[in-house]
Write a structure and sequence with these properties.
Layout lengths: L9 H12 L3 H8 L3 H15 L4 E4 L2 E4 L4 H26 L4 E6 L1 H7 L1 H10 L4 E6 L2 H9 L5 E5 L8 E16 L13 E3 L5 H13 L5 E4 L3 H9 L5 E4 L9 E17 L6 H11 L1
Parallel strand pairs: 3-4, 3-5, 7-8
Antiparallel strand pairs: 1-2, 5-10, 6-9, 6-10
Helix pairs in contact: 1-2, 1-3, 1-4, 2-3, 5-6
Amino acid sequence: MQQALPDLTIRQMAYLVAVIDEPSWALAADRVGVSPSALSQGLAELERRLGVPLFESQGRRRVLRRSARPVVEHARRVLALTHDLVDWSDRLRDGRQGRVRLGMIDVAAMVHFSNVVAVFRAERPDVDLTLSVAPSAQLLHGLRDGDLDLAVCVEPPEPHEGLAIEELLRETLAVMAPLGTTIGEPSTWGPWVTFPAGSHTRQLIVRALAELGARTTIAAESHQPDVLVQMVRLGLGWTVLPVDSPTVGGSVVIGPQLVERVLVLARRADSISDPAADELAARLRA
């Protein structure tokens, strides 16, 4: 006999995600349009129906238990998939054409797939296409939370449950130093100007440098490759970027190839997909 499922509601899921994302319960309540007491009651009911405690007290604050994190991730997936369903029904009822919210890292938007996006926009003026350019981690969070339909980013170091990820292309990253620099043994390289902490590419770079015995002293950070190149030109440090980056030119000394990164196409798994999003995904694969 199949086990009876608890009667959980979408509103309870929204309450839980709001409490995790907002800095206070008052702001979380405002986000979902209820009073703080109604928010608290709704979450207490969610705990009762699940049969496990989700929060614990730390002083005067209630914080999520570590053991409850899978509940939050489940709630995020449920909300994102529900948004997809509502958007699909709205389009069907109103007779609207497709909508695609595309997210890309800068090199994907400006170099690798700029022509794909331009041609799709020109050939499908009926599709409401929006493009957001951001770091990989931010794009994956936007995809997970239902703010994006497709994302082209650097392959994440760890699996993201609820997302379908497929390889699009590979890029070779090389060491780059200021003009006039003699690139010797790895132990003499640096200091570095590179992507901020948490960047998927930075994790690849730091790991590869450590394996070679190079120091990983970070002098400056930026998400933008053209800013990193300018920092190298100014002599602030060395960097590691794709060898075919259009921002490099002949303005820096290009050293040995260091590591390869994979650009992937990510989307929510098992979601009701928009035919327009499917079409754009196919063009990106091609």
